[in-house]
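Protein data:
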Amino acid sequence: MAGHSKWAKVKHIKAVVDAKRGKLFSKLAREITIAVRAGGPDPEFNPRLRMVLLKCKAANMPHENIERAIKRGTGAEGGTAFEEVTYEVFAPQGVAILVEATTDNRNRTSAEIRTIVTRNGGTIATPGAVSRLFQRKGQIIVSRDAADEDKLMEIALDAGAEDFKSEPEGYEILTDPSKLENVHKAIEAAGIKCEAAEITEVPIVTVPVTDPNVAQSINKLLEALDDHDDVKEVYCNAELP
């Protein structure tokens, strides 16, 4: 969901309403298929698939749906060829948004994303204008009641984490993308459950938004983008009330 809040995103995956559950499962199935095509069907040897399966578990995605998506990825059930595309967007007040999508028709998806952005007060940015405001990082989220802070910090840093943040709702661990798998496995090996573990885009600078009307318009744009069938992730550098 809205990439401006990691905790909101975790809660969204866990508590998505039934009306949207089918759409979420479809998006996750597409991610599984792409991950399998890129790195094979065994999550032990395919970190990307392993991360997607963690999302599936959080969303209570049925096992049979996962198996079908894996088979499509291996070619056992045929399937559509997808490509990954990124859109760079400026929202009101100069807020930066990165949109990652997977599509079987780039022209159609691009036109639809442009329409969503324009209707909600945003503009499509030139390539690089928004992406330079984000850093690609590995991100692990652990709820506060799942681990002792000192123990978790020691495990994470010893395994190669770059940063450890303690927040009211839990802990955020940031890594170089290449270290995510090592850190995640080290935490799991200690019997600590992770709410999320994935490669993400972390804003280098954030934009505080205090005007409730502007915040509402930005949230509306984020939700409209996230609701598009082809959109996989939405990242935003706004600090929203």
Remarks:
- Helices lie at 6-15, 18-39, 47-58, 63-74, 106-119, 149-158, 180-189, 212-227.
- The domain at 6-74 is CATH 1.10.10.200 (Arc Repressor Mutant, subunit A).
